[in-house]
Please model this.
Amino acid sequence: MKKLFDLTDKVAVVTGGNGGIGLGIARALAEAGARLAIIARNADKSKAAARILMDESGREPLTLMADVSRPEQVSSAIETVLKQLQGVDILFNNAGTSIRKPPQDLSPDDWHTVMDVNLTSAFLMSRAVYPAMKKAGGGKIINIGSMTSIFGAGYAAPYASSKGGIVQLGKSLALAWAADNIQVNTILPGFLETELTDRARAEIPGIYERVLARIPAGRWGQPADMAGTALWLASAASDYVTGIAVPVDGGFSSALF
Model:
């Protein structure tokens, strides 16, 4: 019988894996035995993340500098992963950004910046790993959505639009690639304490308290709260699960008030 949650020697790629949710996911994958590649733009953060992962797992991750919204850089990064790690079994599309302005104040460049980093990058990365996964007989692609995949956000229209799109992209890829034994799913994190939400709390007065009042669990989440769901969707335990979007939100999306 196969070990359902064992990722020993599986190759996992995590975009934006050098901090916040991405690093929390990377730590869970490393603990389960995966060999990691982290793709991000901040070299110093990636070095710090690599030290953490090395200390905890005894394995140094492959760290690559790339803008995953750029097709040529995505292709180059995946070529390096395939050359150095001999495959890609798991992909986490986690890279993300936000620009918080009223919609009428957004420029076209603002819109495209957020959409390209959050949504186009997931398409480009998924397309890039598909041939290797198909050749290997299967794989796992997990997209990181948001509560704004469900709810609107007047202060972050591009972000909410991109995160709604990421769910539909996941469903579409799941249908297209099911016959190749590639499962594609999406995690919808609730309100977690990360650098991105720290900025939101600084820019939107009272958001922390308003959100906290609606979370049945009684607290904002931590990146480590993503670990179990991430491991499930990356492992053989979810081989018959594809095309879904799973909230990990302390009950936020189930609460009326």
In short: The mean pLDDT is 95. Strands lie at 11-15, 35-40, 62-65, 90-93, 139-144, 182-189, 245-248.
